[in-house]
Design the sequence.
């Protein structure tokens, strides 16, 4: 795993996202913290979850992390005060979460902290900027793949995807799922600036919209993107080049569209980023093979995958075999969190 | 916000109010609690005008200093809860101490800017003593932690803790690491205990300054809100009202920012409204579309603002302090409460009449009783005008009913289309084919009428301009002539 540090070297903001609980995300985090020790202070925060009550937030997985003196971290006030490092308050951000205001602090000793950061992209971006301002050499953001998270790893320059045996007892299923997730996350960015411009304008106030071949666009008023397929189908005119969808895109939306028209062929569907795609392989394949295309407004740069062969449910995969099999399917580096290869 | 049940949106108050954007919670608090000055508080009202005038003067002379002041104001966090807790003997946590330290730092900057800008009405107490408590090493940076210099014991504990942490880092044996971590945990507990002791002491020391903090909250809020009021006054060229003891209201060239800005957007200008009222009833008559309503709303708005300690949107304003200000129209609010327009008006009107009998104030009646049958409506309006004319309150009535004005009432008329060449207007109308042409020709200014004059027949003129059926107009004109003859 020591190569992970080399991989993240060019980037200032790095997110680590786990496909499930217990896939070793915290181990990765701790590993980086450990390896970076003595070289430069790190900044740390996490992507919080929005709209959940305090109980739910408290009960979700939040890693207790052992950090080095000098580390800068952004967490909610409650966790800030609870941390057992000698702590210096650097800034109160005015960003509020169910667990209190986000505080940026510096560790004046080693010790344990718990991290619960902001839940909105702009707030995480701001917090990261501030940590860099206070001298962090890199900012690590602990994230998750969930429909409940509003914020996304697309705000970081690089992303590490953590997966492991916790996903399924069937090693092939784990690999298959991971490969699909990687594929969805790294979906290509739309490159045409004029299209991007129109798309962002649609998303300012609306959930969906279509862009025409002269870059003009039409916003469509729907309550949620989940029920949008009918409106999308109705608006798939010949001169439409792109369909813009805010938020999560599910199997059902694509299925409904595929079933009711073939006008999606040759058109590009734009999503905010790859974390918004919750699709199974079959639907995705049908959609792509029959001429549809999916692109992201903001790209996610997945630089490596970490695997945890151990499951908390009492079984484990053969580490070497797991890693080999994963490498066969995936063309970016794969690291085992439980030891160097 | 509620003053005498006036529809604040309708008279353009909300539009003005929303432009006030205080930078601090202390200023917002004052904005939320604006109060209506009564006669007995005349001195305070006058003082508020003086202070506002001073700030306006300072801003005009020293805009740069005020930009900086506003910049600093943005930085003040709401530490009221912490100070309240401190007052009650609670122990402040590190984040609270950090915010208090920053408050002191920002206050220092604000104080020096205030003296630079020569603002004399705002008094802020120095909190440098508190700042020194929270910056024991004299580093002069805004961050905060429980500094080692607070206690020798803390210093020792932390040094030991650091030593063990070094050992933990170098140790490879899991067992040894666990043993060291156990030792570290004991030190963490000792550190927390000692930190708590220090936080208690710091909180106690700070609690002696609670009054200074609270007075500073008020001072900052006052400054913040004064600046907002001053910016508003400068933007619309508002004037300091003169408070008089005579039974007279004089408002020269008033404007209404709400209407003004709407017209401006359409590339049109607002015709300033001049109105002079003496005790009793003042009636505004005139054409439909002539802006009678706007005259009433603007006058109400300005009188209200004057009583709330604002400058008035006029070139000159003089009025006595009033006990109440009312604005009655067939507003929809009361209608939605299940009353008919007319019913709602009558209930409101009754309330006004009973207050006029006992107190001294101002009431604007915008086309009251327009919704009921004209014969009775006319009688009611005329009776109200006549009856209220004998009291010392100011009653400003707009009506399109004829013959409401008595000899001893003030009477204004919208100039309207009186001086317009109707043939020209008609040609113009034919070319542009828009009803807005009439608005362009309309003279919205008010003209003082001496003696009795009847309401101009602009309704018929406008109907003609809009190509209303000629036959119908002819019949209407005959009816009018007959009616006149009958009256004579």
Sequence:
């Amino acid at each position: 795993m020591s190569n992970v540090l080399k991989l993240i070297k060019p980037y200032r903001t790095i997110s680590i996202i786990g496909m499930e609980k217990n896939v070793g995300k915290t181990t990765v985090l701790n590993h980086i913290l450990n390896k970076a020790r003595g070289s430069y202070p790190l900044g740390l925060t996490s992507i919080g979850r929005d709209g959940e009550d305090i109980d739910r937030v408290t009960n979700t997985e939040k890693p207790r992390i052992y950090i080095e003196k000098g580390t800068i971290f952004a967490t909610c006030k409650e966790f800030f005060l609870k941390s057992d490092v000698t702590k210096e308050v650097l800034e109160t951000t005015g960003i509020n979460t169910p667990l209190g205001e986000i505080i940026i602090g510096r560790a004046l000793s080693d010790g344990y902290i718990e991290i619960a950061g902001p839940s909105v992209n702009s707030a995480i971006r701001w917090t990261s900027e501030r940590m860099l301002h206070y001298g962090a050499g890199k900012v690590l953001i602990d994230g998750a793949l969930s429909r409940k998270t509003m914020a996304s790893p697309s705000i970081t320059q690089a992303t590490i995807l953590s997966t492991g045996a916790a996903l399924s007892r069937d090693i092939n299923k784990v690999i298959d799922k991971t490969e699909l997730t990687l594929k969805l996350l790294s979906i290509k960015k739309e490159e045409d600036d004029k299209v991007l411009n129109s798309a962002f304008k649609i998303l300012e106030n609306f959930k969906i919209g279509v862009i025409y071949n002269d870059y003009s666009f039409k916003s469509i008023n729907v309550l949620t993107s989940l029920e949008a397929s009918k409106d999308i189908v109705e608006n798939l005119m010949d001169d439409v080049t792109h369909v813009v969808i805010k938020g999560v895109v599910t199997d059902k939306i694509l299925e409904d569209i595929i079933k009711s028209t073939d006008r999606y062929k040759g058109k590009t569907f734009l999503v905010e980023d790859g974390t918004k795609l919750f699709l199974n392989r079959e639907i995705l394949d049908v959609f792509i093979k029959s001429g549809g295309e999916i692109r992201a407004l903001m790209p996610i740069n997945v630089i490596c995958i970490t695997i945890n062969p151990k499951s908390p449910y009492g079984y484990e995969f053969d580490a070497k075999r797991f890693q080999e099999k994963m490498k066969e399917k995936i063309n970016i580096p794969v690291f085992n969190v439980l030891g160097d290869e | 916000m509620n003053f005498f049940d006036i529809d604040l949106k309708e008279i353009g108050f909300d539009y003005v109010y929303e432009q006030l954007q205080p930078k601090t919670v202390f200023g917002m608090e004052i904005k939320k609690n604006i109060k209506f000055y009564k006669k007995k508080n005349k001195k305070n009202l006058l003082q508020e005008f003086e202070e506002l005038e001073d700030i306006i003067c300072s801003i005009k002379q020293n805009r740069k200093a005020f930009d900086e002041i506003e910049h600093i104001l943005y930085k003040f966090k709401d530490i009221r809860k912490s100070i309240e807790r401190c007052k009650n003997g609670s122990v402040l946590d590190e984040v609270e101490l950090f915010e208090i330290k920053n408050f002191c730092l920002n206050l220092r900057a604000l104080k020096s800017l205030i003296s630079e800008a020569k603002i004399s009405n705002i008094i802020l107490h120095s909190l440098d003593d508190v700042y020194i408590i929270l910056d024991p090493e004299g580093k002069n940076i805004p961050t905060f932690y429980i500094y080692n210099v607070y206690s020798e014991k803390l210093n020792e504990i932390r040094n030991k803790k650091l030593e063990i942490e070094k050992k933990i880092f170098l140790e490879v044996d899991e067992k040894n690491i666990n043993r060291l971590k156990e030792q570290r945990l004991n030190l963490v507990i000792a550190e927390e205990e000692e930190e708590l002791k220090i936080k208690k002491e710091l909180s106690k020391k700070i609690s002696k300054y609670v009054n200074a903090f609270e007075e500073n909250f008020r001072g900052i809020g006052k400054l913040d809100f004064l600046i907002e009021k001053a910016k508003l006054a400068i933007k619309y060229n508002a004037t300091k009202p003169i408070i008089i003891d005579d039974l007279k209201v004089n408002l020269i060239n008033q404007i209404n920012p709400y209407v003004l800005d709407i017209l401006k957007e359409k590339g049109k200008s607002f015709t300033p409204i001049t109105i002079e009222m003496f005790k009793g009833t003042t009636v505004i008559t005139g054409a439909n579309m002539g802006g009678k309503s706007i005259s009433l709303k603007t006058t109400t708005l300005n009188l209200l603002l004057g009583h709330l300690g604002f400058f008035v949107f006029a070139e000159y304003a003089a009025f006595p302090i009033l006990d109440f200000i009312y604005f009655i129209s067939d507003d929809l609010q009361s209608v939605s409460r299940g009353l008919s327009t007319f019913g709602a008006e009558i209930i409101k009107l009754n309330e006004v009449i009973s207050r006029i009998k006992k107190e001294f104030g101002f009431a604007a009646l915008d086309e009251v009783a327009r919704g009921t049958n004209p014969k009775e409506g006319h009688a009611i309006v005329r009776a109200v005008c006549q009856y209220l004319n004998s009291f010392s309150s100011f009653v400003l009535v707009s009506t399109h009913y004829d013959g409401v004005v008595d000899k001893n009432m003030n009477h204004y008329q919208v100039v309207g289309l009186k001086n317009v060449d109707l043939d020209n207007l008609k040609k113009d109308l034919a070319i542009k084919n828009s009803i807005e042409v009439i608005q362009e020709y309309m003279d919205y200014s008010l003209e003082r009428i001496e003696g009795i004059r009847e309401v101009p027949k602009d309704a018929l003129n406008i109907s003609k301009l809009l190509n209303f059926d000629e036959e119908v107009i002819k019949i209407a004109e005959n009816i009018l002539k007959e009616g006149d003859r009958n009256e004579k």
In short: The CA atoms of residues 241 and 267 of chain A lie 5 Å apart. Chain A touches chain B through 20 residues (CB under 8 Å). Chain A has a mean pLDDT of 88.
